[in-house]
Design brief:
By secondary structure, the chain is α+β, with helices and mostly antiparallel strands. The protein has six helices and 13 strands. Strands 1, 2, 3, 4, 5, 6 and 7 form a seven-stranded antiparallel β-sheet that branches. The chain has a three-stranded mixed β-sheet with strand order 8-9-10, with helices on one face. Strand 8, helix 4 and strand 9 form a beta-alpha-beta unit.
């Protein structure tokens, strides 16, 4: 049960297509967000987690890679409302995406943009405890396209991470920078509990500025935990674990 809105209009999933020579296909020119909507039984409605923050980050990511964002927050809210109606009593994963069809830059005379939102049910059941992990070296680092831009092209490295997991039979891959400091897991932020304190690896210039991580940090601080943002070397993780 999957739904997709293209340029704000509900479209048959199989008909949501682009040409193989469009910019999104040949150069991966797109920016996206992942938004979770949880079903709230008492209110008989969905609760959107950090909706505005996700939209702002999508604006920032699009701006970094020179995509004028082609829709407003109100237009996104309209699609979210329609998705909520289509997927009542389900938790939902939403993927709003901006992309370029034509034009090598935003200044191109033939510039043509598009956007879509994919929506489908999401299983939020508690996952099993991670049993084993491996180290991927190194993580993304600052370059022409900063790692804190959530773009299609910059996420290609996770294909290699996924392959590493499958080949080695592991549950999760930890990514480090060129100095051996922890940055993130494959698609997940890292928080490390060390002697009653929560260590948050400094990811400046190496990983996405995670909205989920910010929410967890706020919850930890509100609950009275000491949260320390610092470089955390892989060796420190070994000490904490063993």
């Amino acid at each position: 049960m999957r739904f997709i809105w293209v340029n704000g209009e509900l479209t048959n999933w199989e008909n949501a297509q682009v040409h193989v020579w469009d910019e999104i296909a040949i150069r991966g020119v797109s920016a996206f967000e992942g938004i979770i909507c949880t079903w709230h039984q008492k209110s008989n409605s969905h609760l959107v987690i950090a909706g505005k923050e996700h939209y702002r980050r999508l604006q920032r990511s699009s701006s970094i890679i020179d995509i004028p964002i082609p829709f407003t927050y109100d237009e996104l809210r309209k699609v979210l409302k329609e998705a909520s109606e289509k997927l009542k009593r389900h938790n939902i994963y939403l993927r709003p995406t901006t992309y370029v069809l034509k034009g090598r830059t935003s200044l191109a005379k033939d510039l043509k943009l598009g956007w879509f939102v994919g929506a489908f049910p999401l299983d939020l059941k508690k996952k099993e405890e991670v049993l084993n992990a491996s180290i991927m070296w190194p993580s993304r680092s600052s370059s022409m396209i900063p790692p804190d831009a959530k773009t299609g092209g910059s996420y290609l490295d996770f294909r290699l991470v996924q392959k590493n997991r499958i080949l080695n039979g592991i549950d999760i891959s930890l990514m480090v920078d060129d100095r051996g400091n922890l940055v993130e897991a494959d698609g997940n932020g890292l928080l490390i509990v060390d002697e009653g304190k929560i260590l948050v690896p400094n990811v400046s210039g190496h990983a996405l500025d995670s909205i989920t991580r910010k929410i967890l940090i706020d919850l930890a601080v509100d609950s009275g935990f000491t949260v320390i943002n610092k470089d955390v070397h892989l060796h420190r993780l070994m000490v904490v674990l063993f």
